[in-house]
Amino acid sequence: MRSYSLRLRLLVAGAVSVLFALAIAAAGISWLFAAHVERRALAELSVQLDQVLSGVERDAEGQIFLSNRPADPRFHRPLGGLYWQISVEGRLLRSRSLWDHEIPLPVDELPDGGEHVHTLEGPGGQSLLTVERSVILPPRLRETPMRAAVAVDRADLQAASRDFASDLLPFLLILAVVLILAMAAQVTIGLRPLGRVEARLGAIRSGQSRRLGEDFPTEVIPLASEVDALLSEREEEISRAGMRAADLAHGLKTPLQALLGESGRLRANGQESHADAIEETVETMRGHVDRELMRARASLHRETASCDIAQVLEAVLRVLRRSAPGDERTWSVHVEPMLSARADAGDLTEILGAVTENAARHATSRIRIDASRVGQNVEISVEDDGPGIPPDRLAEMTRRGVRADESSPGSGFGLAIASELAEALGGGLELHPGTPGLSVRVTLPAAPAQS
Fold first, then answer.
1. Most CB atoms closer than 10 Å: which of 62, 129, 248, 280?
2. Average pLDDT over residues 355-383
3. pLDDT for 11-32, tens place per residue?
4. How far apart are CA 105 and CA 130, in angstroms?
5. Using CA atoms, how far apart are residues 30 and 27, in angstroms rounded to an integer?
6. Which residues contact 227 (CB under 8 A, 6 or more apart)?
7. Handedness of CA 195, 196, 201, 202 (dihedral sign)
8. Would you say 307 and 315 are in contact if contact means Cβ atoms under 8 Å apart?
9. Which of 135, 160, 185 is the last residue in one of the domains?
10. Is 12 in the same domain as 87?
11. Phi first, then psi: what are they for 321, rounded to 5°?
12. Cα–Cα distance for residue pair 66/57, rounded to 1 Å
């Protein structure tokens, strides 16, 4: 199954949105600037056209000429990018910048003083922004109709727009970085409640807490409430299941006891084979009943139970040191301070009692017990210096009724019960060869340190 990071998806989506928005903004600003430059150019062309028209005069021979030429040096430089042209009485007057070219004005009708704006092809293939005006000269100039035009090379306007875009780009990049960083901070702050939810769930799993609570933002409260409701339902279901298992197990004890009585009567009548078969079946069923009772008891308080390892171990060893063969052994105990397991004290007593009693029974003289926290678990190691168990038999030693030494006293149920109870508490029991002897390692979930 593929895993997706909500934070990464939000950051990528936000970054793409910021870049897309800034790209649109850059395009829009550039377009607006280009439109502004064109409007300014048209306004300047109109002023230039006024200057051209104001200089129109007739000489002594009655010919139209321009007495006062515009001062802009581009009018006087060939292909300078700024041009004027006058069409009057079949003659064409033009700026030096046009050289021998002509602005190809379209054929149209203009009222006196009317203006048209064109984009026309100029000298050298230039694209010209052109303002054309039709005027009728005053009476002193014989009221002659005239068409005048002033044009500028669009390349200059486009260069101004490109320069503006180049100047704008660094600021947009800086703005993009600032916005993305601000968005990252916003995402981090916005997702922080989910981190608190994760921490609370970890506390629930470790037994430090039982519910998420409601001290979350409004949007997270429904999630926390649903999780708390689910936890409550789970606890109730576990409690009901444990009680049903316990009721069933207790209900089976009486019929099993009756079967044992029946086997006794069969044995008294000489039917030992039938009695042995019934007793074997009863013992098997009793093992299942005891195991289910143990699991039910462990599950009822598994989430909230907590006990101090050192105290339980001290109580177990106090009994063993007063009875044989524990009183003949040397006990070396090393327990990490403030070490607690998530288990009921009675359950842990039963586990450690079975393991330490087995060690005392098989040890030669010494028994070493170590308890420490490893990650989220507690590990308790009990190692004796006895003859040990062949490695190929270690796996079967946690099965009920199996013993390493058939000649020694015992039922073979101790390690099996301890293993089953440790598993019911969420841990386990493992056997390893010792140096010498046998090493039994019990693993249980760690409980929060008691303050």
1. 129
2. 89
3. 899 899 999 999 999 999 999 9
4. 9
5. 5
6. 197, 201, 212
7. positive
8. no
9. 160
10. yes
11. -70, -15
12. 6
191 occurs within a structural domain: no
Residue pLDDT, tens place only, 276-323: 777 777 777 766 666 666 666 655 555 567 888 999 999 888 888 888
**What is the torsional sign of CA 303, 305, 306, 311?**
negative
pLDDT of residue 206: 64
Instruction: Using DSSP, state whether 2 is helix, strand or coil.
Output: coil
The answer to whether the CB of 256 falls within 8 A of the CB of 289 is: yes
CA distance 302 to 426: 8
- Which residue has tokens 């003659």? 91
pLDDT reported for residue 24: 94
* Domain annotation covers residue 151: yes
Of 300, 318, 347, the domain-final residue? 300
Which strand (E) or helix (H) includes residue 225?
helix 221-268
Q: Residue 46 sits in which domain range? A: 7-160
Number of domains in the chain: 3
CA distance 149 to 132: 4
Is the pLDDT at 151 greater than 90? The verdict is yes
The answer on 376 and 263 residing in a single domain is no
Euclidean distance between CA atoms 109 and 103, whole angstroms: 17
Peptide linkage before 390 cis (omega within 30 of 0): no
CA distance 447 to 451: 12
3-state helix, strand, coil in the chain (%, to 5): 55, 20, 25
CA distance 248 to 145: 119
Cα 382 to Cα 446: distance, rounded to the nearest angstrom: 18
Outline where DSSP puts E strands in 106-225.
115-121, 127-136, 145-153
437 DSSP 8-state letter:
S
What is 198-221 written as a DSSP string?
Answer: HHHHHHHHHTS-S---S-S-TTTH
223 close to 197: Cβ distance less than 8 angstroms: yes
Q: What Å distances lie between residue 293 and 286, 296, 398, CA to CA? A: 10, 5, 18
Q: Are residues 20 and 144 in the same domain?
A: yes
Q: What one-character DSSP code corresponds to residue 25?
A: H
Q: Residue 266: phi, psi to the nearest 5?
A: -65, -40
| Token pair of 172 as six digits | 């947009």
Burial (CB count within 10 angstroms: exposed 0-12, middle 13-18, buried 19+), residue 212: buried
Q: Decide: 352 and 312 in contact? Cβ < 8 Å.
A: yes
Is residue 378 within 8 A of residue 309, CB to CB? The reply is: yes
